Every structure is written in structure tokens, then in C-alpha cells.
Amino acid sequence: MPDIESFKKQALDELIELLKIPSISTLPEHEPDMRKAADTVEAALLRAGMTRTEQIHRANHPLVYGEWLGASGKPTLLLYGHYDVQPADPLDEWKSPPFEPEIRDNNIYARGATDDKGQTWILVKAVEWLMKRDGKLPINIKFLIEGEEECGGEAIEAYVAEKPAQLAADAAIICDSEMFAPGLPSICIGLRGIVYGELHVEAARQDLHSGVYGGAAPNPIMAIAEILTALKDKDGHILIPGFYDRVVKPAPAEAEAWASLPFDEKEYLEKEIGATAITGEPGFSVFDKTWARPTFEVHGIRGGFVGEGAKTVIPARAVAKISMRLVADQRPDEAISQLKSAIAAVTPKGVKAEYKFLHGAGPSLVNPDNKFIHESALAMEEVFGKKTVYIRSGGSIPIVGLFDTHLGIPSVLMGFGLPDDNLHSPNEKFHVPNFYNGIDAVIRYLERLGA
Amino acid sequence: MPDIESFKKQALDELIELLKIPSISTLPEHEPDMRKAADTVEAALLRAGMTRTEQIHRANHPLVYGEWLGASGKPTLLLYGHYDVQPADPLDEWKSPPFEPEIRDNNIYARGATDDKGQTWILVKAVEWLMKRDGKLPINIKFLIEGEEECGGEAIEAYVAEKPAQLAADAAIICDSEMFAPGLPSICIGLRGIVYGELHVEAARQDLHSGVYGGAAPNPIMAIAEILTALKDKDGHILIPGFYDRVVKPAPAEAEAWASLPFDEKEYLEKEIGATAITGEPGFSVFDKTWARPTFEVHGIRGGFVGEGAKTVIPARAVAKISMRLVADQRPDEAISQLKSAIAAVTPKGVKAEYKFLHGAGPSLVNPDNKFIHESALAMEEVFGKKTVYIRSGGSIPIVGLFDTHLGIPSVLMGFGLPDDNLHSPNEKFHVPNFYNGIDAVIRYLERLGA
């Protein structure tokens, strides 16, 4: 039996191997990597002492399930993570290649380091340590590790809806969020939902010469620009009719707690964003804008000529990737239909516009007054030596809504990422001390729940 | 000596070989194809009886020059064409591959068929026929065939400015435009200029997670959309201050002639454009919009995620390819500075925008009252059996302005393309009878000038 420090170092070595697998769920050519990553996770669950593991196939990429149910009379916790990662482009902005993990300045750099392989590994390794040390676990454990978090989560959505009895638990722990600041233990109690889709605009039958037809022919990229600017004004206010109707303001106590969080707007702008100004709706704080207000964003426009040099073409069609982040109590289905109506109302003359929904998830807001969240807060306070703060995240973890709807359980979002971890960006990293402290905190959490 | 019909069929076979060369001047990987195409053209000029040929290197791709100056006391004509072609994408919209010429329904389909290899070949083959038939030419001939028409024309611009004596001529003939309608001989007396460049917008230092930062971070694609819509309104009116100040209205006689051209707006919309409506400035005819009014177009936007599926990224930067078509008496330099000022004035908060000029050319408007245009009109009337009409083109042929400025000569734009030739688009074609009649018309033109 190694000591805990050696054990954690070995856990890091194993994480490095997992990070080498380019398990990009959204790109079909990485299918073999997805299988390899799923196998690696399943093997790790077996090593952690799970008495039964299984790869569940429902959509594109397998769910990895593992259980140990030997703590009779104790609570059952569902442990969630994901082994898939975001695409790594633009590749030329990485200082070290995204799938060749490198440790620099006590950070491990790789795609998926923080989102979510590193954090998934915290859960797996905390359980493995307890099992190795005690030969048993203090509570019952069910792991559910998915491979489609970055591409819509179709498999887990189907499985959770289909097998609530199999997944029955008292609470879920999700390790896929971040601490508010280095060293400050944080539990995320609110997440934005998302509706992601494509805006397809068709103008002419085929690409046209911009000299011969320019002035008389519709331009689909210009049409997209007109639609986008008609849906969101320069101040970041979304103009989709009815869109804000269900938006709930943060409770006064929550808003007050946010105001006392350590936050330097100048540093946020300069170090995290690196733009010339913070933008968005006037009169709202950064916390409001990113945690409590919905968004409308464009992620890319395909169509037309983007190579080197000049091509004088009016493209026949163009596609914009667009998303809306939703907050409580907005509903994805309603937002989609509001968006579709708004697009129809502002589509300019000469073109046809069609919205194609790709994936969505509702927002979530957890009431922090329950034992699973309290014990988590106390476990982190023990390890980090600071009072745990309740925060929200602007991102979307669709599984929280699924667990609530189908299993009727609260989710505890214990996150160990840091705000500058560059998730979804080049040079994604995970702070190694947070990896180690995360393992300690989850060990203490499971111990406390079993006490 | 073959008869003229056999000669023209053989000319078509040779054209097919030329069309097989993917001489895309704008893409560096086609450099060897550019050299091969230049060599093919030079060899054809030698076969046509030129006593001296030369490949001139000034910028990226060689100019091919050839001369026969044996008609003492007769006029000298400068014959212009280009051997480079536009990129062929989107490839999947071609019915036959762009560089595997195929004849269907009396049309030859290939990239460059009409723009401009087919039309260049008309000039070369008309000269070759006269030389073969008579052992001499009725007038003096200088060929100048460039390889950078689709990528800015840097080489020819330098050479014409540098060697006006070498290129001295009485007029130029440019075979790179279209007939107004099938069977209707046309001379183009007006061309729009162009200013083509890139709008670079930089927002954050690197790509950001749209969940974590969405609502507070600037989005460069949205910024481009805001800039584009601030520079052109929904009616197609360009909002760049001062932009229309120098725009000259067509003379009443010209406007009247346009009104009597055979033109069916419904057919134009349905067969040529294939969109749901003609767009552009209210109160202007299609001829006004495409011949006599300037444009502002976006050709593509690079930046962000455009692959399959979803990536929730706010890109750090984005680039739009944009152009302005200019009409007499607008000036490229002035338009560029107006555009730059306008961009600076409308750039939204949080981002930096920079305009990078790529290439430009002034507009041109030729006075049709001169012998070189008259004889061309009469030669075409002989061959096509219909009165020649004077039209304009919305496209840009920068060389017309260069010949005017540096050589002081008028350009005769005898075009044999057709409006549905799909130039710059998939399924570009050239009508084979126009190729044959074009050779006949140029033969008659040279004979008339020498008479």
C-alpha cells in the first residue's frame, strides 16, 4: 500500500496517459479514440474496486458505468464525469501540442486537462484510495462517465430517462466546474442551459460573380449579419420577443454574496479576456451577465471564400453556428420557438432562412439547503482551510437537469478547475495542486457522508 | 491548309487541353500549373506566327507577350486575355470536375471555359488562322496575356507602367466580357472598379468558452456583423460617408438604350440568380444596380468553429473578405480611405478592427465614338447578323484603366460569354457556337482594321 502522496502522484501519471487520447466526441474521425478512452475509464473503475462495470451504447459514444453497493444502510452517491473533450483548434495557438500533456509551472497542459478528464480522475482516484486503504467504501457508489458531454449528451439523456431504477441514488456529485478563485473552495449551485443550433441561409441557386450580380443579388452572409444584429443589439440586449419573460433575478442574499466575492474587474478583463473592454448589457455586473442573464452568441459562419487572397464571389448559402445560454426559469423548447419566430420576422428579402436545432439543455438552480451540499462544503473547508462559497457558472451541464427530472436527486457541483484554465480554448490546463486537493476533498466528502 | 471549320474544331481541342490545367493564380500550390499554362500560351502564340515571344516576370505569375509587326503603315492592336482562373470550390456542386472539360448540349464545361481561357483562345486562333491563310496579318499585333487577373494583376500593372513604348498600340482588344443575350453582339463600354480587402477584428486574447464568458466578452463575428450592417442598410444603400459623392449617372441616351435591351426581370431572377427576390437599392433598375451603382459585399468570414456539430466557443478573432465595386468617377484610393474611416467610426466596444487592402482597380467608361469600337461593332454584326449593342459590365477589368492611363489607348471589349456562363461559380461553361463565331468575328475585325 503506497502512502497517499505517492498514490496521488501515480494518479497524475495515469491521468497523463488518459490525456494523450484525443477523444474529441464531435469529430467522427476520432471514433477509435473515443473507444480507447472509454476502455481506459472502465479499466480504472475496475481498479478502483467496482464490483460491476459496463459500457452502455445508446447513441454515438459509450457511457461507462461502474458500481459498488456494499455499504448497506448508507447513502448512495452517483458520481458523474465525462471522458470526451472539445476539438483542439486553433492548433497553432497551443504552446505544447494538445494531446501531448506537459507540466509547466505546476500546471498540466492538455486538451481535457480540466474539462473534464482531470476532474473525472479526481472522483475515480478518491474512490480507489478509500477502497485500497479500507477494503471497502464508506457509502454506496455508482459511477456514470459519459463520452458525449461536448456533443449533446444524447446517450446519457436516453439512458437516464430509461433506467431510473438502475441509477437510483440519494444525490449526484459532478466534478466538472471551477473554483471561484485559487484556494477558495466553491460549490456551483446554478448553471445556464443552452440551445445550440445552426442558422442556414440560402440566397441564390449557386455562387455568383460579385461584379456581374453585385447590387441586385442577395448575399447570404450579409443576410446572416442582418439577422444577428436584429436579434441582439449593440449593448448585448437580446431582441427575441418574449425571451426575457421567464428570467428570474438572483435572490437578494445570493446577489449580496456575489458582491463580496474577491473579484477585480480590471484583472478579469486584462488577464482572462484580454480584450479592450468588457461588453454586454449595461447596468449588470459581470456575475449577472455571465451567471444570471441569458446570451445569444454566434460561434462561426461557414460559406463563401475564406482562403488566402481574393475571390469575388457572392456565396449561394451560408451557415452560422449560434447558441443561446438560458437561465432559470427559461425553457429550451420555448426559447427555440421564440428564436425561430424571431428569425422568420427579421429574415431579409431575397433569402430563405432556416434554424436547425442541434442540442439543448435546461438551466438549473439548486437549493443549497441539503445535507449533500452541506457535507461537500465542509469537506472542502477541511482540505482548503477556507469557507466554501456558493457560486454559479455560466456554462451548461445538462446532466444536472436530467438527474433532477428523472432521478429526482440534487446534484453537488464540486469543482476544482480555475478561472484561467482555458477550457474550450488553446492551452487548456489543470492546476496540479487542485488535482491533489480535489482527491483529498472527495475522500473526506465520502467519509463524511458515510459517518 | 485545313478549311476554317476544321481549323475551329482543332482550336476547340487545343482549348480543352488548356482547360485541363488548374491554373488558379490565387492559390500558391498551383504555381507549377501556372507555369504550365503560361508555356502552353506562349507555344500557341509561336504557332500563331508571332515573330517574338517572351515570358515576363514581374510579380507572382508570368505575363506572356508575343508580337508580329510586319504590317507597315497599318494600325497596331494590343490583344489582351488571361490564362489564370478562379478557384473551383465548392467542388461538390460541379456536375463534371472543373478541370476535366466536358461538352454537354453544345457547351464546354470547365473552370476558365469562358473566363478567360476560351475567350483568350478566340484571339489567338483568329490571328493564327489569318497567318496560316495569308502568310501575314492585316495589321500589327501585340499579344499580352496575363496570369494574375484573378489575383490582383500586380505583374501587368508594373509592366504596363514600366514599358509603355514596348506596348505602344492604337487600341487594345480585350476578350473577357459577355454578350448581353445569346446571339446579340455586344461591346462593353463601362466597367466597375474594385477595392478588395479584409476586415480583421480582434476581440479576446484567445478563444473563450461561451458559457463562462458569454454575456461579458466581445464576440468578433458579432462585431463584424455590426460593422457590416452599419456600412450597408437593409435596402442595399451603402452608408460609408461620402461614398456616392463622385458617382456619375448614366447619360440619358445610354439609359434609354438600356431600357430597350431585351430583358425579362422574372427570368433573370429565376434562371440566373435563383433567389426569392432581386434585392438592392429601391428605385434603381437591374442595369443601374449592376452597371452604374457601386456595391459593398462580404465574400466570406473566417474565424470560429464551422465544422460538423457544436463547439461553444467565442472566437478570439475573425476576418471578413469584403469588396467595393466602384463606378465612374469613384477613385479606389478615396474609397479605401472612406471605408477605413467608416469602419473606425462604427467599430463596436471591446474589439479592434483593421482593414487590410488586397487589390484594387479604378472603374472605366469608354466613349464609343471611335473607329476601333465602330469596326468591332460592324465585324460582329457581319458574323452574328444583328446590330451590336453597347452595354456595360458590373465586373472589373483593371487592365482597361491601365491601358488608358499608361498607353493612352481605348480598349475594345468584344465579349463572347453568355449571362448564364457561371463565371466564378460551379459549372462554368462556354457556349461552343460563341467560341466559333468569336473566332470569325475577330478575323473580320482584324481584316476590317487592315482594309
TrEMBL record, chains A, B:
Which SUPFAM superfamilies has this protein been placed in? Answer: Zn-dependent exopeptidases
Keywords carried by this UniProt record: Hydrolase, Metal-binding, Protease
Q: Name one GO molecular function term.
A: peptidase activity
Q: Which InterPro entries match?
A: Cyt/Met_Dipeptidase (IPR051458), Peptidase_M20 (IPR002933), Peptidase_M20_dimer (IPR011650)
Name of a matching Pfam family: M20_dimer
The residues forming a coiled coil are none
Q: Residues in domain Peptidase M20 dimerisation?
A: 189-350
Origin: domain of life? Bacteria
This protein is called what? Dipeptidase
Query: Which organism was this protein described from?
Result: Paludibaculum fermentans
